[in-house]
Amino acid sequence: MKAAVFEETGRLSVQDKPVPSLNPGDALIKVDLCGICASDLAALNGDITDYSPPVVMGHELAGVIVESRHPDVKVGEKVTVNPMLSCGDCDSCRADLDKYCSNIEGIGHDIDGGYAEYLRMPKHGIDTGKLITVPDTISPEELIFLEPLGCCINAMRETILDRSVAILGAGPIGLMFTQLSKKAELQTFVLEPLAHRRSAADEVGVDATFDITAEQVETFIEKTDGGVDTVISATVNNQRAIDLAFKLVRRGGCVNFFGLAPGGQELRINLEHFHYMGHKLMASWAFSRWSLNESRQMLIDDEIKLKPLLTDRFPIEGIIEGFENARKQGGVKSVLVGE
To answer: What are the C-alpha distances in Å from 274 to residues 21, 221, 254, 265?
Structure first.
């Protein structure tokens, strides 16, 4: 089979690999689609280090079971995965905080993932509930968003929300936050420098979009009478995004730095100013089993527009082109197509 392998920082290659063989209790997934995630781009750049190359990347996948050696898994089931394979028994796992488990293995991070024609789901992952089945009514184009939507749902539960929200970035994450915010009946604004992504935000129902020019930011502040209660940064948290977040949030408001940051980026705060502004600063990441269940139900109930987010498809052999398209923010969401 063809597979895209993260070999080391700055090096990604397409390789011919054998179709994974199964041990007792494993299952084999034929991958239909796998989303290109910003975390994979950051790992390739060397900005984050929670990967164990060489490894087949890819964790936002949609597929079908084609072989099963597990009694609870049936051939033909439509599936995706919870890519955090944790011990299932420690204090963190029992509290639905699997991401803090000290024995975690990530699909597409530490063990081979979905940038391939086939993926082996190990018995331990199945036994701990990390294989997620969905009805046939859910298309692969929707199913690839189940995991990132779960991340957004988790962040919405953690974030301090009141009446108004500004979302920085109208990529796939920002557009899912936009819809969740509107679903929560919050006044919702999106700030995005790219016109085609602002149009996508309009399509999913934002109250208003703004460019990030100085003039547009001033217009935003005037329109909101001084800013919003909450800012969710769903973009790369470089210095420009950090500065913008603080311009947009009201005194006493909350900023969630959800997006990844370039390697070495620091957040510097004048503590006296911070004290009197009363800002609540936080960072959300990943998902919980609860939020993935919520995400799955939202897909089943057709409560969120996901198909318009998928704009660009690439074959596995086109992984370099796909990564470059995602890096340049072409379209909204780039995916790899299984053979």
So the answer is: 55, 20, 12, 19
Which ranges constitute the DSSP H helices of the chain?
38-45, 91-94, 123-127, 140-143, 146-158, 172-183, 195-204, 214-223, 239-248, 271-277, 289-300, 319-327
Q: How many domains does the chain have?
A: 2
How distant, in Å, are the alpha carbons of 56, 93, 331 from that of 25?
22, 21, 40
82 lies in which domain range?
2-149+287-337
With the C-alpha atoms ordered 40, 44, 49, 51, is the resulting torsion angle positive or negative? positive
Read off the pLDDT of residues 133-187 as tens digits, 9 standing for 90 and up: 999 999 999 999 999 999 999 999 999 999 999 999 999 999 999 999 999 999 9
Q: How far is CA 242 from the centre of its chain?
A: 20
Q: Is residue 282 within 8 Å of residue 255, measured between CB atoms?
A: yes
Please report, for the domain that includes residue 253, its CATH number.
Answer: 3.40.50.720
- pTM, two decimals, is 0.97
**β-pair type (105-106, 187-191):** unpaired
Other C-beta atoms within 10 Å of 230: how many?
26
Q: Which of 236, 229, 155 is nearest to 193 (CA)?
A: 236
Structure tokens at 63: 């597929």
Amino acid at 78: K
